[in-house]
Design goal:
Elements (H helix, E strand, L loop, with lengths): L1 H4 L5 H8 L5 H9 L4 E13 L2 H9 L2 H8 L3 H22 L2 E13 L4
Antiparallel strand pairs: 1-2
């Protein structure tokens, strides 16, 4: 969301990055062609951020954000990073913390031998 709010990435670019190839949306169907038993397990976690640099570093580690920033000239890159930092600082000042939810999922498959 921060990448979209600061106009670093469009909603379409975010959606494209989330839906390329094998995904949660199509994974069960794809695995079901080779395995008789397919189950999706979920692990929910969260990151509570109280300092802007922590969240900024987390965001900058994203391959999508890195790819987008690489295509910009240094001045534009600094401008985008400054806008993201300002948005984070604003949210921290209002709420005291930012909670980043992490929803990891894994497919568990079992082949049933006949």
């Amino acid at each position: 969301m921060l990448a979209m709010n600061t106009r670093l990435m469009s909603p379409a670019e975010v959606a494209e990055g989330d839906a390329v190839g094998f995904s949660l949306e199509n994974g069960a169907a794809l695995l079901g062609t080779a395995f008789a038993d397919v189950a999706l397990r979920r692990y929910e976690d969260r990151l509570v951020v109280t300092e802007s640099e922590q969240l900024l570093a987390y965001l900058m580690s994203s391959p999508q954000v890195q790819k987008k920033l690489t295509g910009l000239d240094p001045a534009e890159r600094q401008e985008h990073v400054a806008r993201i930092r300002a948005l984070i600082d604003e949210q921290l000042e209002v709420h005291g913390q930012i909670v980043v939810t992490k929803d990891f999922r894994v497919f568990i498959v079992r082949r049933v031998w006949s």
